[in-house]
MFS transporter
Amino acid sequence: MSAHVDAKALADADLAAHLAEVAGRILLEVRSSGLFSAKALGKAGDQTANQFLVHALREARPDDGLLSEEEKDNAERLGKSRVWIVDPVDGTREYGEERADWAVHVGLAIDGKPAIGAVALPGLDLTGTGAGTVLRTDRVQPLPPAPEKLRMVVSRTRPAKEAVAVAEGLDAELVPMGSAGAKAMAVILGQADIYLHSGGQYEWDSMAPVAVAQAHGLHCSRIDGSPLVYNQQDVYLPDLLICRPEHAEQVLSLVRALDQAA
């Protein structure tokens, strides 16, 4: 029997990391049960992990707002300073295909800013413990040395044309990958240097990854250089740049040049 965790007593960063890790384990159990067809697995995993996260957050932080991809939106969150923003399965296709590039996002926005975040990569076990990998805002690791040739992570199914054009301008290698969280964490882990996305996203796709990336010293912004603001009435947040800080201005300049040429 597992020990009881007093969630209300946990610091926000510990709570985010614990919830992301447990949700990841739940998702692995759902997948390994063998009860679901490939078509049904994504929905089953999404809904199961979502119920855990929603109930746990309402128990642990009853006064905070909550926004989840899998929950009906609520106007109550707009009047809250503290709002948890979660994505139970980021990269549903990759989850169903038993790939490693999917994630669980648990983040806390405070006054619209990405303050606390945890991104679990249950399929990527860097520690060898079988518990997957969780990157978080309060446990920062040094960025690996930059390689000679730049690498840019892009969608493995529909790379954004702006990202492809910027990669050509930088002579960067394209690295196809699944979920937004996996792409963002790839920059922290040294698997890539730039993540540029312009194909449409929502707040839950980027909030926790941005919080973690910023804590690790990465540049995070919209692709026009403006800040990323969360807990908005319209949760559509279509574009994103996460990169090593030394590449930010060059990437933003290339994007501006593309806009001017359009």
Summary: The radius of gyration is 18 Å. The chain has two domains: 7-136, 151-261.
